[in-house]
Design a protein that fits this description.
about 220 residues; alpha/beta; Rossmann fold; DNA polymerase, domain 1; 2 domains; six-stranded parallel beta sheet; two-stranded antiparallel sheet; about 45% helix
């Protein structure tokens, strides 16, 4: 079945936000007397929501301290959301071509919902997304398929006619759990080996390859 809709992860897939995330969390850690981390360490910290980010960055500190760090992080990140974050080259044009083909587009991220909506609107202004979902109360985070299935329903497309594009094992696990066609991208935060190991149906290394993979999926 050819794809009628595609869901995209945000961080590491559509936008490179690692620098701003690392800067904000290191600021928060230092404000609470904890050591900062090299930016590259955040490649493994991100992907499973902000609470897991705080847990990993604090080294599993007491929950109360994690909460304080998280509050400081959130306030700083809110004010510095666009300092260093940018859309990956070619991604906006590729998504615009998919939309022109009649494919419905959505975003599903474990990032806070407000941040996801602001980033998508500002950094991908040429793309029309039918729906954009971040982390919201009462809805389990990826790789639980609940949000992906709800998003597919909002787009009016059966799961087996949906693609799911992401850069981590969490995204590929989500695609499998939701019965969607998982495509991994190598320009993000994890490796091609990780993506293949978690069941990616295709792994691509450029926006052009992504467009081709999605257009031929299920053909």
């Amino acid at each position: 079945m050819l794809l009628r809709a595609v869901l995209f992860d945000l961080d590491g897939t559509l936008v490179d936000s690692l620098g701003d995330i690392a800067t904000a969390m290191n600021h928060a850690l230092q404000q609470h007397g904890l050591p900062p981390h090299p930016e590259a360490a955040y490649l493994r910290f991100v992907g499973e929501g902000v609470a897991k980010l705080a847990e990993r960055a604090t080294g599993g500190a007491a929950p109360a301290l994690q909460g304080q760090v998280l509050a400081t992080y959130h306030a700083y990140y809110d004010a510095h959301l666009f300092d260093r974050t940018y859309a990956y080259p070619g991604v906006e044009a590729a998504l615009a071509e998919l939309a022109a083909d009649g494919v419905r587009l959505g975003v599903l991220s474990n990032k806070s919902d407000d941040f996801v909506k602001r980033l998508a609107a500002r950094l991908l202004p040429g793309v029309t997304f039918t729906a954009v979902y971040g982390e919201r109360p009462g809805i389990p985070r990826k790789p639980d398929p609940t949000a992906a299935l709800a998003l597919a329903a909002e787009l009016g497309v059966a799961p087996d006619a949906c693609g799911f594009v992401g850069d981590t094992s969490v995204d590929m696990d989500t695609a499998k759990a939701a019965g969607m066609y998982g495509v991994g991208v190598t320009w993000g935060f994890r490796t091609a080996e990780e993506l293949h190991a978690h069941g990616a149906r295709a792994v691509v290394s450029s926006a052009g390859e992504l467009l081709a993979a999605l257009r031929t999926a299920g053909a």
